[in-house]
Amino acid sequence: MFHKACGLVKDLKQRQHISSKIQDVKELLREIKDRSQGYGLRPLEQGASSITTASEAPVDPRLGSLFIDKEELVGIKTQSEEIIRKLVEGSPTRSVISLVGEGGIGKTTLAKKVYDDDVVKDYFESRAWITVSRPYNLKKVLKNLKRQICTSEGVMEETDMEVEQQIEDLRNRLQAKSYVVVFDDVWQEEFLGVIKYALPNNNKGSRIVITTRNVLVANSSPCDIVQLQTWSPALAWELFCKKAFHSEFQGRCPQDLEQLSLEIVKKCQGLPLVIATIAGLLSTKRKIESEWQRVLGDLNSKSELNSQLQTISEILSLSYYDLPSPLKSCFLYFGLFPEDFFILDERLYRLWIAEGFIDSRGDRTLEEVAEEYLNELIQRNLVAFESRFLVGNLCKVHDLMHDVILSRADDVCFFRAWDENKSRFKGTGRRLRISGNIENILKNVGDQTVRTIFFSDIDGQLTKSFVVSLFKKFKLLQVLDFERAPLDILPKEVGNLFQLKHLSLRSTNVQSLPKSIRNLHKLHSLDIRGTLIRELPMEINVL
Length: 543
Description:
Elements: H1 2-38, H2 77-88, E1 95-100, H3 107-115, H4 118-123, E2 126-131, H5 138-149, H6 163-174, E3 179-184, H7 191-195, E4 207-212, H8 215-218, E5 224-227, H9 233-244, H10 258-268, H11 272-283, H12 289-300, H13 307-321, H14 325-332, E6 343-344, H15 345-355, H16 366-379, E7 384-388, E8 392-396, H17 399-411, E9 416-419, E10 424-426, E11 431-436, H18 441-444, E12 452-458, H19 464-473, E13 479-481, E14 502-504, E15 525-527
Parallel strand pairs: 1-4, 1-5, 2-3, 3-4, 9-11, 11-12, 12-13, 13-14, 14-15
Antiparallel strand pairs: 6-8, 7-8, 9-10
């Protein structure tokens, strides 16, 4: 009988191991599907035709940035004048100016204003505007560049020219000219190094301008970097009023709508694209409080019913789709934290390592590799970073980018969120964020595939009986984060979580660790800072 029981235990462990592997494969497949859709690939069942008709071609959501009325150009006069000065003054050698900033900050709008300025038109003999995007086709970029540069020469189409021939032809045509070329929306770091071969350094004061979200792209070649910042409340308000009330009230906000309008502008967090989009939406509404309140409600609930609000999400999502696969998982992890939540960088490192997102590289530690990942997210303008005295290095994502994360996380089944207070249990996945009332969660989360649990903004207390039941239900947990949760006791049953790699009790009221902690042989990190624990059990030396 004993041998039979042992066999059953072994069989159960094997099944649990197989189940875990299957979930790993499923998550990998979901990620591959998401990545392929991000690059515009279609599932096989939809057909493999490479022919796209004009009616099928999607409209680039950034198109509106190129065509903005003059009265809507607010707050960029000083910047545009400074960039124009850089273009027409200075060294006669060819130089590069990079406009860098997060999606929606106004890079394209600023570059277009400079490009269309009469001073620039008069100064340069040839001009070209190329929207690069991702992924780019070098032959098409060169062909488009040639078409614009040589319009006055009556250039014949030469569709069969190889890249080397195109580059040589462009160099010959530009050798004796002063030119300015704008490459809008550059993603690849190697782009500048390649395209420069077609643009000769002819000592004619020629200039190259690029716009990019990624500072690594700008740093890939010597250049003058202009880092665009979010707008001040005053500038944001000025743009909002001009756009929302352009045809009435003399471009001013009526007093009865002022408070609601200020709240709406605050939601836009200084991103001119978002301000202009929301204000443009409001310009079509009746100027009454109920209409304004409805839009504010949509913003608060992250409604995607309106196509204009959806456009914002599409634009911001481009930055996500451009991420390498490991960075996508790291970025989506910010969705496990509440909106506007600042996260310590070291906490992120421990969590990413426990989740298996970080691969070892040479002689560098996993923490050093994790730091590199975070730095790249910061350089791509996806994550904001600040240092606070006596606190540490803090990270957060923009509210609107947080919405994008939630949407993309749902697409790839990255995590699920429970909040009974909001009548919401949304998403699927191996990671679970628990908020609000916890009374019914164990009944509603039916499967046992959860590997990560976070607690935030919990109502009431995490009782011992609840935590024990949680441990029994989710035996394969790898990450368990109680930070700042209303927890007083860590039950001995925690010792049954044999797969646990990360356990955080930080800033809880836990007073002691159970002796069963010795069973957690896979535990990589244990955070007890800010707890009431004053003595560690001897058993912890086994780990």
